Amino acid sequence: MKALDSLRIFVIVQRKGSLSAAGRSLSLSPATISRRISALEEELGVQLVDRTSRNLKVTEAGQAFLEHAEVVLEAMARAEEAARNSKQLPEGRLRIHSRMQIGLRVIGPLLPGFAQQHPDIQLELELSEHPVNLVEQDFDIDIRTGESNDSNFVIKRLLSSDEVLVASPAFMKVHKRIRHPNDLMQVRCLTYRREHEAVTWKYIDEQGVQQELPIQGVLSSNNGELLRLAAIGGMGIALLSEPTVRSGIQDGTLVRLLPEYRFAVRAFSNGVYAVFRQSRTLPLKVRAFVDFMAEALRENDGA
Protein backbone atom coordinates (compact mmCIF):
# COMPACT_ATOMS: atom_id res chain seq x y z
CA MET A 1 0.00 0.00 0.00
CA LYS A 2 2.99 2.35 0.36
CA ALA A 3 3.22 2.70 -3.42
CA LEU A 4 -0.47 3.65 -3.55
CA ASP A 5 0.08 6.19 -0.78
CA SER A 6 2.85 7.77 -2.85
CA LEU A 7 0.55 7.93 -5.87
CA ARG A 8 -2.15 9.54 -3.75
CA ILE A 9 0.29 12.11 -2.38
CA PHE A 10 1.49 13.02 -5.88
CA VAL A 11 -2.08 13.43 -7.20
CA ILE A 12 -3.14 15.61 -4.25
CA VAL A 13 -0.03 17.79 -4.59
CA GLN A 14 -0.94 18.38 -8.23
CA ARG A 15 -4.55 19.24 -7.32
CA LYS A 16 -3.65 21.55 -4.44
CA GLY A 17 -0.75 23.25 -6.22
CA SER A 18 1.60 23.42 -3.24
CA LEU A 19 3.27 21.20 -0.68
CA SER A 20 1.76 23.13 2.24
CA ALA A 21 -1.81 22.88 0.90
CA ALA A 22 -1.36 19.18 0.21
CA GLY A 23 0.11 18.76 3.68
CA ARG A 24 -2.95 20.32 5.30
CA SER A 25 -5.21 18.01 3.30
CA LEU A 26 -3.22 14.90 4.23
CA SER A 27 -2.18 15.93 7.77
CA LEU A 28 1.49 15.60 6.76
CA SER A 29 4.34 18.10 6.89
CA PRO A 30 5.53 19.66 3.61
CA ALA A 31 8.94 18.11 4.25
CA THR A 32 7.42 14.63 4.47
CA ILE A 33 5.47 15.14 1.27
CA SER A 34 8.59 16.41 -0.52
CA ARG A 35 10.54 13.33 0.59
CA ARG A 36 7.80 10.99 -0.61
CA ILE A 37 7.68 12.63 -4.03
CA SER A 38 11.48 12.57 -4.29
CA ALA A 39 11.46 8.87 -3.45
CA LEU A 40 8.83 8.27 -6.11
CA GLU A 41 10.89 10.21 -8.68
CA GLU A 42 14.00 8.23 -7.76
CA GLU A 43 12.14 4.95 -8.14
CA LEU A 44 10.77 5.97 -11.55
CA GLY A 45 13.97 7.63 -12.73
CA VAL A 46 12.17 10.77 -13.94
CA GLN A 47 11.34 14.20 -12.51
CA LEU A 48 7.63 14.51 -11.82
CA VAL A 49 7.48 18.00 -10.30
CA ASP A 50 9.41 21.15 -11.22
CA ARG A 51 10.42 22.76 -7.92
CA THR A 52 12.32 25.71 -9.43
CA SER A 53 9.26 27.93 -9.92
CA ARG A 54 7.41 29.72 -7.12
CA ASN A 55 4.45 27.40 -7.56
CA LEU A 56 4.81 23.68 -8.07
CA LYS A 57 4.47 22.66 -11.67
CA VAL A 58 4.05 19.11 -12.94
CA THR A 59 6.57 18.19 -15.64
CA GLU A 60 5.64 16.60 -18.96
CA ALA A 61 6.66 13.21 -17.58
CA GLY A 62 4.70 13.96 -14.42
CA GLN A 63 1.60 14.80 -16.43
CA ALA A 64 1.79 11.51 -18.31
CA PHE A 65 2.28 9.66 -15.03
CA LEU A 66 -0.58 11.60 -13.40
CA GLU A 67 -3.16 10.39 -15.90
CA HIS A 68 -2.36 6.75 -15.17
CA ALA A 69 -2.02 7.38 -11.41
CA GLU A 70 -5.55 8.78 -11.23
CA VAL A 71 -6.89 5.70 -13.05
CA VAL A 72 -5.06 3.41 -10.62
CA LEU A 73 -6.36 5.30 -7.57
CA GLU A 74 -9.92 5.27 -8.87
CA ALA A 75 -9.70 1.53 -9.52
CA MET A 76 -8.29 0.96 -6.04
CA ALA A 77 -11.03 3.08 -4.49
CA ARG A 78 -13.64 0.96 -6.26
CA ALA A 79 -11.93 -2.22 -5.10
CA GLU A 80 -11.78 -1.00 -1.50
CA GLU A 81 -15.40 0.11 -1.62
CA ALA A 82 -16.49 -3.24 -3.05
CA ALA A 83 -14.68 -4.98 -0.20
CA ARG A 84 -16.35 -2.74 2.37
CA ASN A 85 -19.74 -3.17 0.74
CA SER A 86 -19.42 -6.94 1.03
CA LYS A 87 -19.75 -6.43 4.79
CA GLN A 88 -23.12 -4.69 4.18
CA LEU A 89 -22.36 -2.15 6.90
CA PRO A 90 -21.97 1.55 6.04
CA GLU A 91 -18.86 2.92 7.73
CA GLY A 92 -16.01 5.41 7.43
CA ARG A 93 -15.67 9.17 7.08
CA LEU A 94 -18.43 10.94 5.17
CA ARG A 95 -17.69 14.52 4.10
CA ILE A 96 -20.72 16.67 3.28
CA HIS A 97 -21.05 20.28 2.17
CA SER A 98 -24.18 22.38 2.42
CA ARG A 99 -25.30 25.97 2.13
CA MET A 100 -25.50 27.55 5.56
CA GLN A 101 -29.25 27.85 6.09
CA ILE A 102 -30.14 24.48 4.56
CA GLY A 103 -27.47 22.85 6.70
CA LEU A 104 -28.67 24.51 9.91
CA ARG A 105 -32.44 24.40 9.40
CA VAL A 106 -33.03 21.30 7.25
CA ILE A 107 -30.10 18.85 7.45
CA GLY A 108 -28.74 19.59 10.94
CA PRO A 109 -31.84 18.57 12.93
CA LEU A 110 -31.83 15.14 11.23
CA LEU A 111 -28.19 14.28 11.96
CA PRO A 112 -28.75 12.76 15.44
CA GLY A 113 -31.23 10.28 13.97
CA PHE A 114 -28.82 9.36 11.20
CA ALA A 115 -25.96 8.91 13.66
CA GLN A 116 -28.10 6.64 15.80
CA GLN A 117 -28.86 4.40 12.82
CA HIS A 118 -25.28 4.43 11.49
CA PRO A 119 -22.85 4.66 14.40
CA ASP A 120 -19.89 3.52 12.27
CA ILE A 121 -20.06 6.57 9.98
CA GLN A 122 -18.02 9.61 11.02
CA LEU A 123 -19.74 12.74 9.71
CA GLU A 124 -17.98 15.92 8.61
CA LEU A 125 -20.43 18.67 7.64
CA GLU A 126 -18.98 21.89 6.23
CA LEU A 127 -21.28 24.88 5.79
CA SER A 128 -20.53 27.78 3.45
CA GLU A 129 -22.22 30.05 0.95
CA HIS A 130 -19.75 29.18 -1.81
CA PRO A 131 -20.08 26.44 -4.44
CA VAL A 132 -17.65 23.56 -4.01
CA ASN A 133 -15.84 21.16 -6.31
CA LEU A 134 -16.62 17.68 -5.00
CA VAL A 135 -13.48 16.12 -6.46
CA GLU A 136 -10.90 18.80 -5.75
CA GLN A 137 -12.20 19.50 -2.25
CA ASP A 138 -12.77 15.83 -1.42
CA PHE A 139 -16.47 15.97 -0.52
CA ASP A 140 -18.66 12.90 -0.80
CA ILE A 141 -21.95 14.81 -1.01
CA ASP A 142 -22.99 18.39 -1.72
CA ILE A 143 -26.46 19.49 -0.57
CA ARG A 144 -27.68 22.09 -3.05
CA THR A 145 -30.78 24.13 -3.72
CA GLY A 146 -31.91 24.49 -7.32
CA GLU A 147 -31.47 22.03 -10.14
CA SER A 148 -28.12 21.22 -11.73
CA ASN A 149 -27.41 19.86 -15.20
CA ASP A 150 -23.89 18.62 -14.48
CA SER A 151 -23.75 15.17 -16.10
CA ASN A 152 -20.55 14.32 -14.23
CA PHE A 153 -22.50 13.82 -10.99
CA VAL A 154 -25.53 11.97 -9.70
CA ILE A 155 -28.28 14.36 -8.62
CA LYS A 156 -31.09 13.18 -6.32
CA ARG A 157 -33.94 15.37 -5.19
CA LEU A 158 -34.37 15.16 -1.42
CA LEU A 159 -37.20 17.63 -1.07
CA SER A 160 -39.40 19.79 -3.26
CA SER A 161 -39.71 23.33 -2.00
CA ASP A 162 -40.86 26.79 -2.96
CA GLU A 163 -39.49 30.12 -1.91
CA VAL A 164 -41.93 32.09 0.20
CA LEU A 165 -42.28 35.66 1.43
CA VAL A 166 -42.18 36.00 5.22
CA ALA A 167 -42.19 38.78 7.78
CA SER A 168 -42.90 39.15 11.48
CA PRO A 169 -46.46 39.72 12.76
CA ALA A 170 -45.33 43.09 14.16
CA PHE A 171 -44.05 44.19 10.76
CA MET A 172 -47.30 43.16 9.07
CA LYS A 173 -49.38 45.17 11.55
CA VAL A 174 -47.67 48.30 10.22
CA HIS A 175 -47.72 47.21 6.55
CA LYS A 176 -51.24 45.87 6.08
CA ARG A 177 -51.75 46.91 2.48
CA ILE A 178 -49.44 44.44 0.71
CA ARG A 179 -51.91 42.86 -1.71
CA HIS A 180 -49.81 42.53 -4.88
CA PRO A 181 -46.14 41.73 -5.62
CA ASN A 182 -45.62 45.26 -6.94
CA ASP A 183 -46.32 46.55 -3.42
CA LEU A 184 -43.02 44.94 -2.30
CA MET A 185 -41.05 47.72 -4.01
CA GLN A 186 -42.49 50.20 -1.52
CA VAL A 187 -41.59 48.39 1.72
CA ARG A 188 -38.42 47.26 3.49
CA CYS A 189 -37.08 43.98 2.13
CA LEU A 190 -34.28 41.65 3.18
CA THR A 191 -32.42 40.25 0.20
CA TYR A 192 -30.07 37.38 -0.49
CA ARG A 193 -27.18 38.73 -2.51
CA ARG A 194 -23.93 37.30 -3.86
CA GLU A 195 -21.04 39.70 -4.41
CA HIS A 196 -22.28 42.76 -6.34
CA GLU A 197 -25.12 41.25 -8.36
CA ALA A 198 -28.36 43.17 -8.77
CA VAL A 199 -31.27 41.80 -6.72
CA THR A 200 -34.51 40.87 -8.44
CA TRP A 201 -37.39 38.79 -7.16
CA LYS A 202 -39.44 36.86 -9.71
CA TYR A 203 -43.11 35.99 -9.53
CA ILE A 204 -45.82 34.43 -11.71
CA ASP A 205 -48.66 36.89 -12.35
CA GLU A 206 -52.38 36.23 -12.71
CA GLN A 207 -51.95 35.34 -16.40
CA GLY A 208 -49.18 32.83 -15.65
CA VAL A 209 -46.44 35.13 -17.01
CA GLN A 210 -43.13 35.47 -15.20
CA GLN A 211 -42.43 38.99 -13.94
CA GLU A 212 -39.39 40.52 -12.25
CA LEU A 213 -39.22 43.04 -9.41
CA PRO A 214 -36.11 45.13 -8.77
CA ILE A 215 -35.69 45.09 -5.01
CA GLN A 216 -33.70 47.60 -2.97
CA GLY A 217 -33.09 45.74 0.25
CA VAL A 218 -32.74 47.49 3.58
CA LEU A 219 -30.48 44.54 4.40
CA SER A 220 -28.57 42.36 1.95
CA SER A 221 -26.61 39.27 2.93
CA ASN A 222 -25.23 36.08 1.41
CA ASN A 223 -26.52 34.17 4.46
CA GLY A 224 -30.14 33.08 4.51
CA GLU A 225 -30.14 32.31 8.23
CA LEU A 226 -29.23 35.91 9.03
CA LEU A 227 -32.10 37.10 6.82
CA ARG A 228 -34.50 34.73 8.63
CA LEU A 229 -33.47 36.13 12.01
CA ALA A 230 -33.81 39.69 10.72
CA ALA A 231 -37.32 38.92 9.45
CA ILE A 232 -38.30 37.45 12.85
CA GLY A 233 -36.95 40.63 14.46
CA GLY A 234 -39.30 42.79 12.37
CA MET A 235 -36.69 44.31 10.08
CA GLY A 236 -38.50 43.59 6.81
CA ILE A 237 -39.77 40.99 4.32
CA ALA A 238 -37.55 38.10 3.26
CA LEU A 239 -37.87 35.61 0.39
CA LEU A 240 -36.57 32.29 1.68
CA SER A 241 -36.84 28.55 1.06
CA GLU A 242 -40.05 27.26 2.65
CA PRO A 243 -38.48 24.38 4.65
CA THR A 244 -36.14 26.83 6.39
CA VAL A 245 -39.00 29.04 7.64
CA ARG A 246 -41.68 26.38 8.15
CA SER A 247 -41.22 26.17 11.92
CA GLY A 248 -41.40 29.97 12.22
CA ILE A 249 -44.69 30.05 10.30
CA GLN A 250 -46.05 27.24 12.45
CA ASP A 251 -45.13 28.84 15.78
CA GLY A 252 -46.29 32.31 14.73
CA THR A 253 -42.94 34.11 14.76
CA LEU A 254 -43.28 34.55 10.99
CA VAL A 255 -46.23 35.26 8.70
CA ARG A 256 -46.38 34.19 5.04
CA LEU A 257 -47.32 36.92 2.55
CA LEU A 258 -49.10 36.63 -0.81
CA PRO A 259 -49.42 32.82 -0.78
CA GLU A 260 -51.49 32.94 -3.98
CA TYR A 261 -48.34 33.86 -5.97
CA ARG A 262 -45.27 31.78 -6.73
CA PHE A 263 -41.98 33.56 -6.01
CA ALA A 264 -38.33 32.82 -6.71
CA VAL A 265 -34.96 34.53 -6.40
CA ARG A 266 -33.42 32.85 -9.44
CA ALA A 267 -35.47 29.90 -10.72
CA PHE A 268 -38.87 28.37 -10.03
CA SER A 269 -37.56 24.79 -10.16
CA ASN A 270 -36.76 24.85 -6.47
CA GLY A 271 -35.78 21.95 -4.29
CA VAL A 272 -33.11 20.46 -2.07
CA TYR A 273 -30.77 18.08 -3.89
CA ALA A 274 -27.97 15.69 -2.94
CA VAL A 275 -25.14 15.75 -5.50
CA PHE A 276 -22.48 13.04 -5.47
CA ARG A 277 -19.91 11.48 -7.77
CA GLN A 278 -20.65 8.87 -10.40
CA SER A 279 -19.40 5.45 -9.35
CA ARG A 280 -19.89 1.90 -10.54
CA THR A 281 -20.20 0.89 -6.90
CA LEU A 282 -21.94 3.60 -4.89
CA PRO A 283 -20.34 3.73 -1.43
CA LEU A 284 -22.71 2.39 1.20
CA LYS A 285 -22.09 5.42 3.42
CA VAL A 286 -23.25 7.76 0.63
CA ARG A 287 -26.30 5.64 -0.15
CA ALA A 288 -27.17 5.41 3.56
CA PHE A 289 -27.04 9.20 4.04
CA VAL A 290 -28.96 10.08 0.87
CA ASP A 291 -31.69 7.48 1.49
CA PHE A 292 -32.06 8.49 5.14
CA MET A 293 -32.36 12.20 4.33
CA ALA A 294 -34.81 11.63 1.48
CA GLU A 295 -37.06 9.50 3.70
CA ALA A 296 -36.84 11.80 6.71
CA LEU A 297 -37.58 14.90 4.67
CA ARG A 298 -40.55 13.23 2.98
CA GLU A 299 -41.96 12.40 6.40
CA ASN A 300 -41.40 15.95 7.65
CA ASP A 301 -43.05 17.28 4.50
CA GLY A 302 -46.13 15.17 5.15
CA ALA A 303 -45.64 13.15 1.95
TrEMBL record:
Keyword Transcription regulation: yes
Residue ranges annotated for the HTH lysR-type domain, each copy included: 1-59
GO molecular function: DNA-binding transcription factor activity; sequence-specific DNA binding
Source organism, top-level taxon: Bacteria
CDD domains linked: PBP2_CrgA_like
InterPro entries xref list: LysR-type_TF_proteobact-type (IPR058163), LysR_HTH_N (IPR000847), LysR_subst-bd (IPR005119), WH-like_DNA-bd_sf (IPR036388), WH_DNA-bd_sf (IPR036390)
Keywords: DNA-binding, Transcription, Transcription regulation
Listed GO biological process terms: DNA-templated transcription
Keyword Electron transport: no
Matching PROSITE patterns: HTH_LYSR
Record family assignment: Belongs to the LysR transcriptional regulatory family.
Protein name per Swiss-Prot or TrEMBL: HTH-type transcriptional regulator DmlR
Taxonomic source organism: Variovorax paradoxus
Source lineage: Bacteria, Pseudomonadati, Pseudomonadota, Betaproteobacteria, Burkholderiales
Record gene name: dmlR_34
